[in-house]
Amino acid sequence: MAIKKSTGFTLTEMMVVVVLVTLLMGFAWHFYFSGRETMRHTVSQSQIQLDTRLFLDHLEIEMSSCYAFSEVDTQNKKFSFYSYTFTPPHLDDVLYETDGTPQNTGEDSEASLSMVKYEYEWKDDGKVIKRRTPGKLNFLQNPMRFTEAEATDARYSSMEKTVLRDIADFEVKAYSQKIQREGEVLTPVIDPVTAPDKMDEATFIVLRLHTKIDELSERRRDEELDIVTKFYSSVKLSEVANPGAFASTDRDGRF
Fewest Cβ atoms closer than 10 Å to its Cβ: which of 24, 38, 100, 130? Predict the structure, then answer.
């Protein structure tokens, strides 16, 4: 009677199969987690960009009605400015009584403008705090005097909130811009403004936001975003663009 040969895998073959399957599973596992980490990093980076863009868009809207800068403190990483709550008032309504009698226009004048004061400040924990204060600005006084008052509209009521997080650096500098005329040639002259008592002469600020999230895991990449933006005071820019022909408050007494 013939004896049938037994079929199966040898121990060597089994070991080879196990090694090959382990390698294939290892590669698949690696690609899976690499792809998941890439997606996580992309989504997180997009969220940082979105948060920063929303912050800059809101700041740009506020700057569109900016009358003057109140403070730009480069060392302590904070700045503030005054903005119209609605549209700039007509000078006649500010400098004249209803019967046409001129108001005092000296440096002790009580003539005021309805303003809202915005303040931005960077904290050591990486947060940027925004404050909004409604009030009256005695714009003819030197220095100008701001007094808190009841908001003319609920949209400009007092508030304080965190508008950015994970900010590694927050740099802000102020500059003045004037037009120098040489014959028919007009040349812009830009100078830094550092003295606190000269801050109302600033035309624009340069703001640098450096967002960074440090990942503790070696498998994760740090998330960073670095943006430098220039913001103009709308009033100062109009005065620079139209020297001697534009005045929103006649603070310099030329009109």
Answer: 100
